[in-house]
Design goal:
By secondary structure, the chain is mostly helical. It has a single domain, classed as Methane Monooxygenase Hydroxylase, Chain G, domain 1. Helices cover about 75% and strands about 0% of the residues. The protein has four helices and two strands, in the order H-H-H-H-E-E. Strands 1-2 form a two-stranded antiparallel ribbon. Helix 1 runs antiparallel to helix 2 and helix 1 runs parallel beside helix 4.
């Protein structure tokens, strides 16, 4: 495949990646709303969508890396060379387009990281508040956490599942 077509394919991959990140970000907005509303059924649906999107993002990331390697080979650039060196060999218009896409991807990822961190802080504060209330209500059980079978469990790990009956 000629380098020109590979460059255009890389641009399409980057556009798809940006769209998927934006979609993931949008679903995380719903995730936050459902966590705050304690809407566990809809939360589960959003989590399933996020799992699928995460898998899709992983695949497109691998595809992008593969195309970068193919382009490096096509343009006779060492595989370990930087993406910047490869980009410098592209026509100006494509360089600008790819740089714009990279900037938009970085920006979208930063927004996503902030949103996810915010959800994490919210759930940690809610968990902490609930633990304090439980420690006051049942002081002899203070600091103890139990698993599904009723056995004492470690409090070190962060919760990964939400109870629908909370």
């Amino acid at each position: 495949m000629p380098a020109e077509k590979l460059i255009n394919k890389l641009i399409l991959i980057l556009q798809n990646e940006l769209n998927m990140i934006r979609q993931y970000n949008s679903e995380c907005e719903f995730l936050h709303k459902f966590v705050v509303a304690k809407n566990w059924m809809d939360l589960e649906k959003v989590l399933q969508k996020l799992r699928i999107l995460a898998d899709d993002l992983s695949r497109i990331d691998e595809e992008r890396e593969m195309f970068v390697d193919i382009l490096k080979n096509e343009m006779e650039i060492a595989t370990e060379s930087s993406f910047g060196l490869l980009l410098s060999r592209f026509p100006q218009n494509e360089q600008r387009q790819i740089n714009d896409l990279k900037r938009d991807i970085r920006h979208s990822v930063m927004i996503l990281q902030n949103r996810i961190n915010g959800i994490g802080r919210y759930t940690e504060s809610q968990t902490s508040a609930l633990k304090e209330v439980m420690d006051i209500l049942v002081p002899d059980q203070k600091g103890k956490i139990y698993n599904r079978s009723g056995a004492a469990s470690s409090a070190g790990a962060k919760p990964m599942l939400f109870s629908r009956h909370f």
